[in-house]
Every structure is written in structure tokens, then in C-alpha cells.
Specification:
The complex is a heterodimer of chains A (186) and B (302). Chain A is mainly alpha-helical and 186 residues long. Helices cover 69% and strands 0% of the residues of chain A. Chain A is built from ten helices and no strands. About 15% of the residues of chain A have low confidence. The chains are: A mainly alpha (186), B alpha+beta (302). Chains A and B meet through helix 2, helix 3, helix 4, helix 6 and helix 7 of A and helix 1, helix 3, helix 4 and helix 7 of B.
Chain lengths: 186, 302
């Protein structure tokens, strides 16, 4: 099976099926990354398409100083961050706020299966990215560090803090408030 | 006591070296905080690993793939941009509209230097072959501007770009666009936003091209988001109108074959709501003696 870099070379030489192969190879991971980051399928579709359009537009400028998949994930993460920032500026586009468990109902709500996906959306985005890349998509620490441009140690501590927050949300032990950025700083 | 936070992830993943693992285990034996955290983190990790990958919805990447195919077939057929764009009016809605943009982008990305070796007349003939019957109406428009009351098609967009490029000519400075008196960059935060479909049509009294678009800031952010400035683009003019019946922002930029290179072409982006790319076209400035396009360019080939 050709590597991504070999496919890029083939595409530059005029073979369109090479680009299709690249897309097919990565689209599911990119879409799911965006879907878990953003929550809304329509936003995930936009961010995914934006990512591959960027790939197509910038392929001639891709210099191979990082792996193609790393670069592609970086583009996708940035596209998701852009969408999240737009939501902050336009609150009407934000996701409906999922009510956390009321303090009196902790025991009951802990017994319920809280939707993992909804819990994930309550994790601060820098931590959420690491959780999705590592625990959902099996990307290694080093590659995540390269995608995000942060030290490996930061990836590991965000991963741990994020997992703890997820576990607490799912067990209903964290109360209704979202884990604060400050508390979760690595 | 120093908690080995960054090692706890590896401990939960069971990816630590044996010596590291022993140290962490020794710590967990004496630190209830970390031991509890590990327990909760294991639960969090298991929940996350239970998430299955969902299939990519149809139509998300297929337009991009088709654009790449257009590129391969189009190295000697620049009109391919238009042939993919022209069926949009009747056959495609929503995301498929991006095909026109993607086809153009494929050529920008992969053939940045070779696209414009073909002369302009060949390209325009290709556009005329695809022209819809109402193609003529653009002929009367100010070639430097669209009539903001219009409802434009892909072929009209191409015609606009051709006329605009030939009218403006090459920029006078290496990396600059036409003179500033032609700049109509929207700044005014008036009411018509991306969702403000019909309102733009109610502003007929305003001379074409002089009315700032509604949400200029959001629009410019859209341009940034889609990478419109990646090739050193400079926004020359912008306005709000309709494209294939949808409210749209039209932006004219000049850019080079790559960032930091002299601007040699005019590009037009058409954006719908949520920064959706409805269309894209580009024209190279004539390299010598920009002269008006012959009017028979504008007639559809029988």
C-alpha cells in the first residue's frame, strides 16, 4: 500500500485517484474528530469539507516537514477551533446547554447512563481534543504533540485530567458545573 | 508530595517502562488522591473507547474528490471549471455547490503555474459553451462591478471575472491590487447578515457596488476561514447579492500564484451562509496590452 507521501507525489504527477485514495483513507477520522469536537453533524460536515478543501488547495505547498496525516489533523483541529470561536461570538449558534444533574439527584443521575458524547462536549476544548485523538482515535502522544504544537508532557497531563473529568461527569460526582479551565490546567 | 500527573496517563494506558511503572505504583500505594484519580480516569478512558466511528455523510468529500478528478482531466481543458459549475442551477443544492469552487481550487493548488499558460480566449470560449440563456444580461453590467440586484449564475460569474480582469489590468505594484478608489471593502456593521436573504434585494435605490455588505467583519472572517488569503490575496471589492437564488457575498481579490509572489490574477469568491463556498473563479490579468474582450465572447455558441 502506498504511503500518503507517495500518493501526494502521484497526485502531483496527474493521477486523480491518488487524491481520492488520500481522502478515503482519512475522511472518517477527520469527520469523527470534528463531530466529537463540535457535537453538531452539520458543523462537522462543514469542518471536514473545509479541511479537505484546504488539503487540495495547499497540497502543492505541502513540503513534507511533517507527516501528511499530522498536517491534516492540524488543519481539522484549527477548523474546529474556528467554529467554536464563532459560536462564542454568536451565542445563538451554540449547542443547547445540557443540564447537569441537580445536586439532589446525584445518586439517581449517577445510575443513569449519561451520554458519553454529551459529557465529552462539556470538557474544555484543549482537553477534549487530546481525549478524542488519543482515546477515540488511537493517535500516539508524540503525534498529538505535533498536531497541537505542545510538549508531549502537556499532552499526557491533558489526557489524564480530561479522563478524570470524563469519569467524574459520567459518574455524576462532579456536580452540575463544568470543570473549569483553571482547575484543569496541566 | 509531588503527584506524577503526566505519568498517570501512561499508567492507565499501560504504556510505562517497567521502572516507571514501579515508581507510579509505589506512589499510588501511598496517595489516595492519585489512586482515586486513576480509578476515575480508567472509567473515563473506557467510556471514550466505547465511542464508535460514524460514517462520513454522503456528499461531504465527494465534491472535493471530483474536483481533483477535474484537475487531472483539465490540464489541457481549463473550461472544466465551468463545466462542473454550470449544472448547479438545476441539479444540485447545498453542499454540491462547492464542486465549482473545489474544481477551481484543485487547479489553483495543483496547476498554480500552468493553468494560465492557456490564453484567455480559449478559456472564455469554454465558458460560452456552457452559458445559460440569460447570459447576455451581464453584458450590460458595469464590468468592474456586479449589479447588486442580480441573481447570478456560474457562467455570469466567469464573465464578470473576465471582464473585471481585463478592465483592471495587471496591478501596478508587485503585490498590490488596483488603486484604492476602486476599493469597496465592507466595513459598516449594518443589519443584513448571512441569513438576511431577501433584504439585499430591497436596497435597489443604492447604486450598484456602493452599499457595504451587511456583516463585513463576519464575511472577512469567512474569507480567512476558507483560505482566500493563502496566496497573498488582497480584497478589492465585495458586495451582497444572490447566487443561484441564494443570498451570497461576492468578493473580488487579487492574488499571486503563491503567497509573497506578485499578484497576477483576479479571483472571485462567492460565499453563502456559514462561510459555505458557493463558487469560485479566477482570471489572470492580461500580460500585455489589456484590451476589451470582443463582444462575441458573450454570445453562447449555438
Amino acid at each position: 500500500m502506498p504511503t500518503d507521501e507517495e500518493l501526494i507525489a502521484l497526485f502531483r504527477d496527474g493521477d486523480p485517484s491518488a487524491f481520492e485514495e488520500l481522502v478515503k483513507r482519512h475522511e472518517q477520522r477527520i469527520y469523527n474528530l470534528c463531530l466529537r469536537m463540535l457535537g453538531k453533524p452539520e458543523d462537522a460536515r462543514d469542518a471536514t469539507q473545509e479541511t479537505f478543501l484546504a488539503a487540495l488547495r495547499r497540497l502543492s505547498g505541502f513540503r513534507g516537514d511533517s507527516r501528511f496525516s499530522t498536517w491534516l489533523h492540524r488543519v481539522a483541529v484549527n477548523s474546529c477551533y474556528d467554529t467554536l470561536r464563532r459560536r462564542q461570538r454568536r451565542p445563538e449558534e451554540a449547542l443547547p446547554d445540557e443540564p447537569g444533574p441537580a445536586p439532589g439527584d446525584l445518586a439517581e443521575s449517577a445510575a443513569e447512563a449519561v451520554d458519553v458524547r454529551q459529557a465529552l462536549l462539556r470538557i474544555p476544548e484543549d482537553f477534549r481534543t487530546v481525549l478524542i485523538l488519543h482515546d477515540v482515535q488511537d493517535v500516539g502522544y508524540e503525534e498529538i504533540a505535533e498536531i497541537l504544537g505542545v510538549p508531549v508532557g502537556t499532552v499526557k497531563s491533558r489526557l489524564h485530567r480530561g479522563r478524570v473529568a470524563m469519569g467524574q461527569l459520567l459518574q455524576g460526582t462532579h456536580g452540575p458545573s463544568q470543570p473549569s479551565e483553571g482547575k484543569m490546567e496541566p | 508530595m509531588k503527584h506524577p500527573t503526566s505519568q498517570l496517563a501512561g499508567y492507565v494506558d499501560d504504556s510505562l517502562e517497567p521502572s516507571e511503572r514501579k515508581r507510579v505504583e509505589a506512589h499510588l500505594g501511598s496517595c489516595r488522591t492519585c489512586a482515586h484519580e486513576v480509578e476515575v480516569a480508567v472509567a473515563g478512558r473506557e467510556a471514550l473507547r466505547s465511542l464508535v466511528l460514524e460514517d462520513v455523510p454522503v456528499g461531504v468529500t465527494s465534491p472535493v474528490i471530483q474536483a481533483a478528478a477535474t484537475h487531472a482531466a483539465g490540464s489541457d481543458a481549463p473550461a472544466a471549471i465551468r463545466s462542473s459549475a454550470s449544472p448547479l442551477r438545476s441539479r444540485y443544492v447545498g453542499i454540491y455547490k462547492v464542486m465549482a469552487a473545489a474544481a477551481a481550487i484543485a487547479i489553483v493548488g495543483a496547476l498554480a503555474t500552468s493553468l494560465f499558460r492557456n490564453d484567455t480566449s480559449q478559456m472564455s470560449t469554454g465558458a460560452a459553451e456552457q452559458a445559460p440563456t440569460d447570459f447576455m444580461k451581464v453584458q450590460d453590467a458595469d464590468p468592474g462591478r456586479f449589479d447588486r440586484d442580480g441573481n447570478y449564475t456560474a457562467a455570469e460569474l466567469t464573465a464578470y471575472a473576465e471582464r473585471a480582469a481585463s478592465t483592471f489590468g495587471p496591478p501596478t505594484e508587485a503585490a498590490a491590487g488596483p488603486s484604492s478608489d476602486q476599493t469597496q471593502v465592507a466595513e459598516a456593521p449594518t443589519s443584513v447578515g448571512l441569513e438576511g436573504a431577501p433584504e439585499s434585494r430591497q436596497q435597489k435605490a443604492t447604486p450598484p457596488g456602493t452599499q457595504p455588505i451587511g456583516d463585513g467583519k463576519a464575511f472577512k472572517e469567512c474569507l480567512d476561514t476558507i483560505g482566500a488569503y493563502d496566496h497573498g490575496g488582497k480584497l478589492i471589492s465585495s458586495f451582497e447579492g444572490l447566487y443561484l437564488d441564494e443570498p451570497a457575498y461576492f468578493a473580488t481579490l487579487t492574488e499571486g500564484p503563491d503567497a509573497n509572489e506578485p499578484h497576477d490574477r483576479l479571483v472571485v469568491w462567492v460565499l453563502g451562509k456559514n462561510c459555505w463556498v458557493l463558487a469560485f473563479t479566477q482570471q489572470r490579468f492580461p500580460t500585455a496590452n489589456p484590451s476589451p474582450l470582443p463582444t462575441d465572447y458573450m454570445h453562447p455558441v449555438p
